[in-house]
């Protein structure tokens, strides 16, 4: 790294990229990035150039010696990279739309990281990630893979189990957001609190909250459930409201995604209504993206536009750049990331990915122990973890039956028959992105 | 036991009692029962006398020196008993009807051992069982408690965790029935096969099937899923048919109750239809029972009437009497019962109740190891186990919030709001049998 | 097996063979053995013929259609065998003598299954066993490997971890002998008691003893430690006497081999004295063997001579033939054997070999759970298990450093320096039988 | 803590106290200590005043508003304390001398934290610590107990299992010293390396060493074992030299105390020689202490004298003050302390004390996961942990038989008979400090 850090960003044409660029610009003093390689595929070429040019203008405005490279050649980008960040979407938002719409036809939640949609996003993404890992072994064996691509937990699980790459971290802005929310509720600075997290990606709980060393979890939950209070939530999950008694008995702050599991019927009703009125989330996002790229095209724009913040990935840049900087600088601070369990959560397989507090060192994240999962959440977390393992296996093997079992055991799916029907319809819909399931034309399904 | 074995049967007025009496009569040579005390409560007095008199006629016909005692005094029955069997139903079939009907109003499966209904049957039953345990400590500390009362797994869990009684076995006729079914499918005698079970009560799987030492699981599943074949099932669960690919990929034979989890939407639709046409299962059973008791009243009847077999508890007598005889005779044969895990299933807490193959010795059942749960079923089994633990805790503490969490985390319940509504309605409906939740009039809920 | 069972006995020229032959003769009704192939190597040819001819006379006298085949061709013997039993000794008793004598020079216990001697017996034996396993894969893939060769626990560990053979059982007559001893102490028949064993081969404890279902462990230990009482012991370990308080507090019956660990200084003193007076155990046994083979040569001898019983392997025939018969007949009775742990002992790796009570089925032994090791013995058992794992690894890899660590961590070895010295001297002494450590002449050590 | 921090130091008359005082003085800016209460017992009154007056002079010289209080009244000192540090020695150095000398009579290592001596130091210390814990519950329930009293691991184990105090940390300067030594070997600053520790107090291993994120463990071990290099060691353990191959194969840096286990015979010979020539360590230390207190008496001395550094507790002040400051300031840095395992080491009971890297927060230390113990060290670490558990149990119950088992299973004790003899002699020798074993005069032993 003598001549500065080289970053390779797979899916560099994403609308999120300005977040990342801004993050690197802000941290240049402690994180001397010299090259950022934005990689994308042929279909994303146009977006890559729009967002890449904005990135160049941002760097220029900041007057920093960061080179922005735009390329469709992944190998060139990976060569000697120090950090590889991934933020791509196989099949673009059109695929997400299918993940959302098809399940709804079966009265099943349609979502991109949970349920049948999450399964299919995993099936499409995992082979690509494993392919990137193989390239990394060859081209940049010492680099860190920072995965932001959803479903981040399932993807990290797959890399841990099916790749030789050891230097991988799965990242989500959720825990950061929850901590911000809790600090807001308490009216204090984030540094004054310590939040012990436990769980999996998109299935994480703020188990215990300390303010100046004192357990204030109960106090936070009372404030959260008091009438008229906004709960901690990710913006792209609508605020449906928890049963106050339930949340207070749980005595933990669940990430908003847990509403899919604890409020299934309400969330489904909401989704059906929204799909009819304004389209699914993918459709909404497509519109937002179009607007963003219109903005990005403006040659006079040389900072991250404010509108990006409404896109949903709040704190994306914070999470990614903080992680990279802590690894680079051996900061040994605490961040909440997806990594190999190794005993951090006692009721989860030691080789599985979990999302827990870690000390971030130059040789990677080291999880802090959290002990046993509280009984209240243990079963669900364990169930989703086995689902993720089955899903990763199906993605790697391309085995129809494994995918069928994964689909059937998902708690959002209501029967083996619906599982089979959705599986068949989604396989057909995503055929172009699931070559592993269609090895010999027309035979497998 | 010098003067012969003393049996105390709590809930002796049950229509099943003739099954048990027949079992003891058939095994008298190896199991010299001298006294059977049928105990019931005031409300069951009439039934107790009808069925008790039939029992007396059966014994007389068999010409055996077995004394049948009928009593409403539980202490007298327990005094120096060798085996205590429990087969009572708190709140009779009227309560079961509520457990079935109320959830249906919320588009939720209504059933007596699963979902909200199972939870409430547990809440009503556990305090009574723990009370019996306390009596046993005093009156027959060396006796074995053979629990047949459902939900048998949850009840055994509660006894293991909250009672001083160590000599407890939870019993279900399900595994015996599955083995019979498998032997039938293979066209062999039950003794020729070995079936390795794993799981929990009403959540059990025949994991591996051996015929003369050879693994024939795949063969059995192919036969089971071939068109036109009857699957192994308990009679009171209708045959809805599994997706053949799902079952074959699972490569295990699930107990029929698992349809509630793997075929939720189908089962619910079926229940709603049946409730409209012929009433819930409780209503059907009530009718069957009325007919049975009419038969039992007949002074000329001195054998178990054939009609009893249609009542649903096939093999009930086999399971109970085989177990008692193996304990009494130190047979060291293998039976599938509910007992403390202790490592038999590696992914379940060592102190929890599991349903696995055990060697039955005079000092109790010793589980055989089954290793890890297959990934395909691990999550669901773990989830139900944590539900059972929460439910047992709620039953013992009478804590509203604990019951709310138990209800919400049950996989058959679709949201926290519906959980709260069902909880409130069921608490009110079963108020008379849930004193622990209503300690101070009108305050708790 | 239509034409009857084929047995292949590796090390068939052993003086123990008449034990085995007698066992098969006695059980012919339930265990229809048709062919016994006694295999040995060139160096054992003479003994093979002497003992083989005795075997033939024994079978003839019993008037049974069992064919005895003598061969130096292992492949011929293994071809289509149903059971392969192993009872060989790499390097004969001369090697044992070195295992015993060399450690004594370093004031360290010299013994063939424990300490430095046990390590070296393992290093010599494991490659041969793994070679047999490879032959079995090819020549008799459905056969059971019944290993009697010491150190049986370490050998079973190696087969479980480094071979593809799944059908392996490690066998020791120790647990059978302890049970016999306990029954004697209690003055009852063996069938009246149930002994729960836990531990490893030659490191096993009778944890709880039941008589007619009642725990009588304390009573047995009081009788064992009462003045003037003989303790349960294997004949070839001298009775040194335990501290009564220690044994009673342990509240378990340890196998005699545990004296090496709990009475190290006394055992060493005893061995040093014996070595001076009568020679080491190997030397004593060599003399006994010479006398036995003189007897065997007698053409008029056609039964197992009584003198064999003093050889030390009491119950050898019982243990081996009972096991084979229970597998063959799917008896599902309980025997104590070495097999994969799989949760039977919670504090030992699930993939390691342990010696515990198992149900013996046609598809193999299934361990019964024993829960956690009692604190009193946990540490030692865990330590020996890791020693066995290191030793097996050293045997397979032939890595000098791994062997050095194994030697140093053995609790009978008093320092890293003595470990290195003994290792070097024993490697040199056994060079002919340790090719894996001398791959490139003179380089490795 | 508004008016500043209150420290209570039990065993305040110790010769180490100036270390502690110096540490507080140096850190006053970040750690505003206002009151230090030095507590001792009647027998230590003189020393307390000598060292206490030196402390006063040191504070005065530093011109800081720290009050030094000297007292024999423990309650007064504990009242509202923020931190309680313990550094006392029950029975003074005379008791240590017995712990060292009596085992030597039995050809057994005599040492104050290992073997029979360590056991007896534990038996004397644990009841006193538990008594302090009871006082703390009443007088300063929010205070942290920082235990420096040896055997620190066993003492922490006892507090975790037998006290209601949750805020306890066991501390040892060993890991700090190892890190310093490693940094020296590498010629870098301590902050540039990261050392992953695993194990127990006085049984700890530097498992992996990172320099700027790169694993350099092998390099460190090669340097350590190169001819002429000083190994990392605590000063009070003589440098006997490891077998280079052993250490390099281990591929970890063991704390010097591990020589007692891996070099038992050499260490014993060394001790026997030293005892004859210069006396045991206690005798040497007594002499050093006498000289130190002579220095302390000097009214002109107002700084920590250099000679104290030779006393053996190098880095004592660093370890203690760093810990207290990190708790007080919620620093979240990494220190290696004794705390509840909770999954940090997978092969050790989750409720036991382990010595591992922890993040130090205001609500206490949180262990970082270390995964499974390497096979090479697993057995010994597990064995010592069970010894510690048995020892703690014996200390609390005063049960002779439990103490006998603890003594016998210690790996440094060579037989049950010697165990009993040493136990009896040490019990008699320490009778005055072991009231729990002599409850009814003359009955128990």
Describe the protein:
Four copies of one chain form a homotetramer. Chain A contains 16 helices and 13 strands. By secondary structure, chain A is of the alpha/beta class. Chain A has a domain at 175-273: Alpha-Beta Complex (L-2-Hydroxyisocaproate Dehydrogenase, Chain A, domain 2). In chain A, helix 1 packs across helix 13 (316-329) and helix 5 (115-139) crosses helix 6. The longest helix of chain A has 25 residues, at 115-139. Chain A starts with a strand and ends in a 16-residue tail after the last helix. The model of chain A is unreliable at 231-238 (pLDDT under 50). Chains in contact: A-B, A-D, B-C, C-D. At the A-B interface, helix 9, helix 11, helix 14, helix 15 and helix 16 of A face helix 9, helix 11, helix 14, helix 15 and helix 16 of B.
Put the structure in a nutshell.
With 445 residues, chain A is an alpha/beta fold.
Order of helices and strands of chain A: EHEHEHEHHEHEHEEEHHEHHHHEEEHHH
**Shape by Cα distribution of chain A:** globular
- Radius of gyration of chain A in whole Å, from Cα? 21 Å
Q: Strand pairing plus helix content of chain A: what structural class?
A: alpha/beta
The helix count of chain A comes to: 16
What is the average per-residue confidence, as pLDDT of chain A, rounded to a whole number?
A: 92
Keywords:
homotetramer; alpha/beta; L-2-Hydroxyisocaproate Dehydrogenase, Chain A, domain 2; six-stranded parallel beta sheet; four-stranded antiparallel beta sheet; 13 strands; 47% helix; globular
């Amino acid at each position: 790294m003598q001549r500065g850090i080289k970053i390779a960003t797979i899916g560099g044409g994403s609308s999120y990229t300005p977040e990342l660029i801004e993050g690197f610009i802000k941290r240049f003093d402690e994180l001397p990035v010299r090259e950022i390689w934005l990689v994308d595929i042929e279909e994303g070429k146009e977006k890559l150039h729009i967002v890449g040019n904005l990135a160049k203008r941002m760097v220029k405005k900041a007057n920093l010696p960061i080179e922005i490279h735009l390329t469709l050649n992944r190998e060139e980008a990976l060569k000697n990279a120090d950090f590889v960040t991934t933020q791509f979407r196989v099949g673009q938002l059109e695929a997400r739309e299918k993940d959302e719409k098809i399940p709804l036809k079966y009265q099943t939640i349609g979502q991109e990281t949970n349920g049948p949609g999450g399964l299919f996003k995993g099936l499409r993404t995992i082979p690509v990630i494993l392919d990137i890992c193989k390239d990394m072994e060859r081209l940049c064996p010492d680099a860190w893979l920072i995965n932001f691509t959803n479903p981040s937990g399932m993807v990290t699980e797959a890399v841990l189990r099916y790749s030789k790459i050891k230097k991988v971290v799965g990242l989500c802005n959720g825990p950061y957001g929850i901590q911000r929310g809790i600090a807001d509720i308490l009216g204090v600075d984030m540094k004054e609190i310590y939040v012990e997290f436990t769980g999996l990606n998109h299935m994480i709980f703020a188990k215990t909250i300390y303010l100046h060393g004192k357990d204030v979890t109960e106090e936070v939950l009372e404030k959260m459930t008091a009438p008229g209070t906004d709960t901690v939530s990710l913006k792209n999950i609508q605020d449906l409201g928890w049963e106050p008694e339930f949340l207070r008995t749980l005595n933990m702050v669940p990430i908003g995604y847990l509403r899919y599991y604890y409020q299934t019927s309400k969330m489904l009703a909401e989704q059906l209504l929204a799909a009819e009125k304004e389209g699914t989330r993918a459709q909404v996002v497509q519109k937002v993206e179009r607007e963003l790229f219109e903005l990005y095209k403006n040659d006079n724009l040389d900072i991250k536009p404010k509108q990006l913040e409404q896109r949903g990935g709040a704190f994306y840049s914070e999470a990614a750049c903080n992680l990279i900087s802590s690894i680079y600088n051996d900061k040994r601070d605490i961040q909440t990331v997806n990594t190999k369990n190794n005993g951090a959560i006692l009721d989860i397989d030691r080789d599985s990915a979990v999302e827990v507090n870690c000390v971030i060192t130059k040789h990677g994240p080291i999880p802090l122990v959290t002990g046993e999962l509280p009984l209240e959440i243990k079963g669900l977390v364990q169930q989703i973890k086995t689902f993720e393992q089955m899903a990763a296996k199906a993605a790697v093997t391309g085995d129809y039956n494994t995918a069928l079992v994964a689909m059937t055991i998902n708690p959002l799916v209501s029967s083996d028959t619906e599982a089979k029907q959705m599986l068949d319809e989604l396989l057909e819909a995503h055929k172009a992105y699931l070559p592993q399931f269609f090895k010999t034309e027309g035979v497998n399904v």
